[in-house]
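INFO  loader      accepted 1 record
INFO  loader      residues=164
INFO  predictor   begin
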Amino acid sequence: MARWLASLVLLAGAFVGRSRDVSKHEAVDIRASLYFQEAGQFGTDNIVAGDSEAPPLHHALTGGFHGQGPSGATLVLVKVRGTFASSSQRGSVRLTAKPGDRILADRSAQLSDFYSAERTEIWIPFLVYGTGCGGELKLTASTRSPQQNVESTVTRAIAFDCSE
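INFO  predictor   done
INFO  writer      dumping tokens
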């Protein structure tokens, strides 16, 4: 009986030691909206391909998108899951934007710049310039540890079209 009880205590201790590492963060989604420079406003449509409500992006650079004017930049929001209740939070989120093999943007944001006492998911903003034409724009976001090790990655695309 004593041996069985000792085994049970060891087994219970093994499960307690396996709690989730709350210091890690996970990139879970990407949204994007056009920036209309003549109006000084961001669009309200999520333009990420695959979103059931994503509009066609024909000639966004020259103003062919719903008549809202030309757009030469895109606001990209990366949804990150984790804990954000400390301003000393370490790690970062990195976003790359690539039309084909060319790198249009490669930016990072420190998680310590974003605080939320109550939420376990927040949106990190990035502004990508030179968008609106050039075919598919591949967006890749990754969370990184303080040592810059990749913790998670999410990829989405925007289907820009500038053909005649």
